[in-house]
């Protein structure tokens, strides 16, 4: 059932083009320049929305950080993201005008269920974004939106991250169109980028041998630092989480600009720095931060779409530029990198120590 793959995680990484096509299927209306999602908000609700709050844990939290930027840009609505276990609802005088979205692959995460229950109880409107039909979260919320990634067995979330961001990107388009903050031509450009996403992901998967070479070079490193800006920041956080989870190596994700405010003290010749150097991630500024790390002898691995000159990197990995979605494509390299670092060390990739696929205690 692993379809010839040694691990579910690698199978699920490779399933992403198919999963993303499912996520997008029937939901793009290029002619109207709109998304067509199977969730119906009450008449006039989205227009009068005052705030969106996303609540989630782990990888779903990082997907939410990515999506929040899209929601703010397209829908011009204040959007906050909170770790579910830290969440308290403060909806002001009219809580219903706040849409609280629980983002959860399994739909069973206790922290996320607790958060959405608190929001619903206080009078907010609630929406579940999940991979699992009939899961607990769908019984706690007014509406549900399915990410359609297909079952994910590996404890490390991979294809569901991409499908979560993609589903929320469609939602951001729909809300932006309803509110009149996103013009049809701009929406069309976003939708075209989404249509190109599965192909761009496939191109990365075709480069897996280069990632393996990189992993072989750096497998003995002391620690791994991931840096990015803008949409590249949640991708850096997610890249580091994958490596921690399955390789048990020390890894941290930073906003690239923060390196010089402290973490740079940790940088040595034994700490590779992985970066997102693409559209949507301020590649020029990020490259400057990477260069600072290289000056302290750190090896540099960067994902590039050709926007900046990357000759100075120790390893440059290429992606196609697809606007706001480019950093999401860069993330596929980080998934493959974590997988191969873990595999070279013989780790229990699909069932890492101490972790469970769905965390049903608070
Ligand atoms: O099922 P959920 O999306 O609610 O799960 C949230 C986290 O437990 C989950 O993303 C976890 O961080 C993964 N193991 C990450 O790979």
Largest sheet: 5 strands, parallel
Tell the overall outline.
globular
Strand arrangement within the widest β-sheet reads 4-3-5-6-7
Counted by DSSP, the helix tally is 11
Q: How far apart lie the N and C ends? A: 32 Å
- Quick one: how many beta strands? 12
Organism: Natrinema zhouii
Protein name: Glutamine--fructose-6-phosphate aminotransferase [isomerizing]
GO molecular function: carbohydrate derivative binding; glutamine-fructose-6-phosphate transaminase (isomerizing) activity
Subunit structure: Homodimer.
How would you portray this structure in words?
By secondary structure, this protein is an alpha/beta fold. Helix content is 42%, strand content 16%. It has eleven helices and twelve strands. The protein has helices at residues 8-14, 16-24, 58-75, 110-121, 136-140, 159-179, 184-205, 208-218, 232-247, 283-295, 326-344, and strands spanning 28-29, 34-35, 51-56, 78-83, 98-104, 125-130, 143-146, 224-228, 251-255, 273-277, 300-304, 315-318. Strands 4-3-5-6-7 form a five-stranded parallel beta sheet, sandwiched between helices. A five-stranded parallel beta sheet has the order 9-8-10-11-12, sandwiched between helices. Strands 1-2 form a two-stranded antiparallel sheet. Helix 6 (159-179) packs antiparallel against helix 7, helix 7 packs parallel to helix 11 and helix 9 (232-247) packs parallel to helix 11 (326-344). The longest helix has 22 residues, at 184-205. The protein is globular. The protein starts with 7 loop residues before the first helix and ends in an 18-residue tail after the last helix. The mean pLDDT is 97. The structure holds 5-amino-5-deoxy-1-O-phosphono-D-mannitol. 5-amino-5-deoxy-1-O-phosphono-D-mannitol binds at residues 57-60, 104-106, 109, 112, 155-157, 241, 245, 358-359.
């Amino acid at each position: 059932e692993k379809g010839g793959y040694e691990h579910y995680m690698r199978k699920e990484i490779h399933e992403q083009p198919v999963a993303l096509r499912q996520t997008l299927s029937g939901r793009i209306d290029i002619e109207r320049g709109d998304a067509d999602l199977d969730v119906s908000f009450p008449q006039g609700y989205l227009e009068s929305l005052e705030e969106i709050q996303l609540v989630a844990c782990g990888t779903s939290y990082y997907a939410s950080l990515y999506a929040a930027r899209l929601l703010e840009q397209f829908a011009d609505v204040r959007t906050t993201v909170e770790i579910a276990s830290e969440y308290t609802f403060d909806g002001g005088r009219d809580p219903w005008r706040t849409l609280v979205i629980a983002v959860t692959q399994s739909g069973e995460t206790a922290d996320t269920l607790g958060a959405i229950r608190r929001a619903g109880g206080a009078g907010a409107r609630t929406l579940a974004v999940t991979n699992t039909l009939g899961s607990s979260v769908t019984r706690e919320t007014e509406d549900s939106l399915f990410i359609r990634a297909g079952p994910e067995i590996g404890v490390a979330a991979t294809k569901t991250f991409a499908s979560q961001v993609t589903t929320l990107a469609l939602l951001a388009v729909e809300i932006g169109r309803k509110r009149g903050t996103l013009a049809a031509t701009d929406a069309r450009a976003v939708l075209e980028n989404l249509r190109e996403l599965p192909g761009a992901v496939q191109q990365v998967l075709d480069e897996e041998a280069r990632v393996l070479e990189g992993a072989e070079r750096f497998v003995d490193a002391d620690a791994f630092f991931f840096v990015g800006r803008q949409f590249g920041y949640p991708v850096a956080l997610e890249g580091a989480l994958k490596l921690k989870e399955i390789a048990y190596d020390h890894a941290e994700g930073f906003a690239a600009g923060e390196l010089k405010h402290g973490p740079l003290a940790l940088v040595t010749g034994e700490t590779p720095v992985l970066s997102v150097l693409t559209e949507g991630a301020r590649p020029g500024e990020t490259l400057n931060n990477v260069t600072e790390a290289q000056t302290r002898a750190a090896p540099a691995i960067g994902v590039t779409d050709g926007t900046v000159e990357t000759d100075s990197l120790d390893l440059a990995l290429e992606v196609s530029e697809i606007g706001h979605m480019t950093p999401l494509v860069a993330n596929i390299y980080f998934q493959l990198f974590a997988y191969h670092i873990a595999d070279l060390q013989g780790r229990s990739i699909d069932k890492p120590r101490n972790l469970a696929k769905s965390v049903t205690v608070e």
